[in-house]
Design brief:
The protein is mainly α and about 230 residues long. It is built from ten helices and three strands, in the order E-H-H-H-H-H-H-H-E-E-H-H-H. Strand 2 and strand 3 form a beta hairpin.
């Protein structure tokens, strides 16, 4: 298996307060209930997960937010947090902490909208930070297309680098393919949440100046020190 473990860094700019805070909150929101509720953990997740069939009827709208911090299992959590760790800090460093806070939550809501539109009557709980993180990936694609993503090849523990444009282009192509060819009936990955979040991130990234550092929310410090 291959995982992203690092990238080129924006030197200077805003400190990634919220990117790292979201990472900690997600971990605590999983670990604490996991040990408190034990075998009833999945009931807890169901309670705070987002059900499209309820949302379309105006019921439990708060779960659109709480579901962003729920995860179905350890691998679900670890995968999402790894992507947030690698890609979130550069976005916040560039657009600013408050802007990143708004961006993250709005991206998560767009992701939920994408999933709900794809299956509005579903009563299967949707959980996970991946929709909001997909928005981060979309913004990263247009802001830092030439950034080098450090990848870990688990077999042999070898590392190599590939351009962000290639890695994230392949990632969204996989989501689109799965979204059009895979049914989520009975549970599974909410592909259209990923797609919805990513589309929002791309649009937000373009409005922030895209790869033209120094425009939009980009700081002069980030422009000078970007590698």
């Amino acid at each position: 298996m291959i995982f992203p473990i690092g990238d080129d860094q924006v030197q200077g700019g805003h400190k990634p307060i919220f990117a790292y805070s979201f990472l900690v909150i997600n971990i605590l929101a999983f670990v604490i209930p996991w040990f408190v509720f034990g075998p009833n953990y999945h009931g807890f997740v169901t309670e705070f997960g987002s059900l499209p069939g309820e949302i379309t009827n105006g019921v439990d709208l708060h779960t659109l937010i709480t579901s962003m911090f729920m995860h179905g299992g350890w691998m679900h959590l670890v995968g999402n947090m790894l992507f947030l760790w690698v890609f979130g800090d550069n976005i916040e460093a560039t657009v600013g902490s408050f802007n990143f806070l708004l961006f993250y939550f709005i991206g998560g809501l767009f992701a939920s909208a994408g999933h709900i539109i794809s299956d509005p009557d579903s009563m299967i709980p949707t959980v996970g930070a991946s929709g909001a993180i997909a928005a981060v990936l979309g913004a990263y694609l247009v802001m830092f297309p030439k950034s080098q993503i450090k990848m870990l090849f688990l077999l042999g523990m070898r590392t190599f680098k590939i351009p962000a444009l290639l890695f994230l282009g392949f990632w969204i192509a996989q989501q689109l393919w799965s979204g059009f060819t895979t049914s989520t009936e009975g549970g599974g990955t909410a592909w259209w949440a990923h797609i919805g979040g990513f589309i929002f991130g791309v649009i937000a990234g373009f409005f922030s100046g895209g790869a033209k550092l120094g425009k939009g929310y980009f700081s002069k410090k980030a422009e000078k020190d970007y590698v």
